[in-house]
């Protein structure tokens, strides 16, 4: 894929042309035509290379060796005792897949679509804040690797590269995530920029308006050395109610504002109950993302996989369900699809792939889990995504 460096610079200039704000990102040689961002004193991985991925969970130990300790702790840790973080993974093992042989199947077709966007696999890349802690190409690397895997990337409002630079580095498809801001003018400008840059939907995260007890970060006094590129500096500071401009008292009027100001489909991320799913439908949301933030916010809440059947029953097929938290195997993807997910959003392993191989690492992570999904679909006698349903699992 060819990325025109002059084009990148041009769009970035346009992106930051309003007001006094100029984001602290930099272009540098060293990763081909990909934009890169570095800060003194933080040695983020910079290699772009093919990596062998056998098991997504094993990537964590490999990534630990290349990501600076504070950054690795921030990515890998969860809230409190990390019970929910581990339970997200363990819950999948409590449901088993029924093999179905002699089904005389032809080729396995993993293609599907989400909100009208066709994708090669029902596995997208979830949102992370700044990716520069994992690799110098930051969100541009993750977006491109996801695109090369034939699927959809979610850019974070806390991204370290401006959204226009990310969009220019990858043809997408891309969604944009939003942490709702107190300043509606700022938010409206952000949403208009997202729309103008081709982001196809807005993911509104509703489960991170409070500072969680991620004790690893508290113990290491971890603060990202990178700035969030899409907002003025004051917008990026911490969680303190007095200094942060991220909104704490979120309500449905905020969602209505985002719907109106963006003119884009809105996905509510952080849905863990049937009631919230029903509310989202009532308020005209285009989709929900069943998520407990990878166990990073409230510990001792159930695994997303545990809650999925109830939520899917409440939704009753009226809107698509994006599903995340704890997905590490193609079998997990299959099980989530069987219980009602439309697509799953892959989490931490993507950042580990980015750290180990830049965009090629991200692509390899997606390719591996997609291959496992194909294997699982073959054994379960399902040649199309639409054939995967609850009957494919042991009750
Ligand atoms: C390092 C890191 C940063 C994250 N940043 C955000 C964020 O800015 N916004 C958000 O909605 N979710 C964020 N998440 C949560 C993910 O979107 C997703 O819900 C979670 O990673 C899924 O769990 P898994 O990593 O176990 O698969 C972040 C997760 C990680 C690991």
Can you give a write-up of this model?
By secondary structure, this protein is an alpha/beta fold. It has 13 helices and 10 strands. It has helices spanning 5-15, 59-64, 69-76, 83-90, 138-148, 163-169, 184-196, 215-220, 252-262, 274-282, 304-315, 330-338, 348-379; strands spanning 112-114, 117-119, 123-125, 153-155, 174-178, 202-205, 266-271, 287-290, 321-324, 343-346. Helix 6 links the parallel strand 4 (153-155) and strand 5 (174-178). The radius of gyration is 20 Å and the shape is globular. Residues 74-75, 88, 126-129, 156, 158, 177, 205, 269, 291, 293-294, 296, 324-327, 347-348 line the site of flavin mononucleotide.
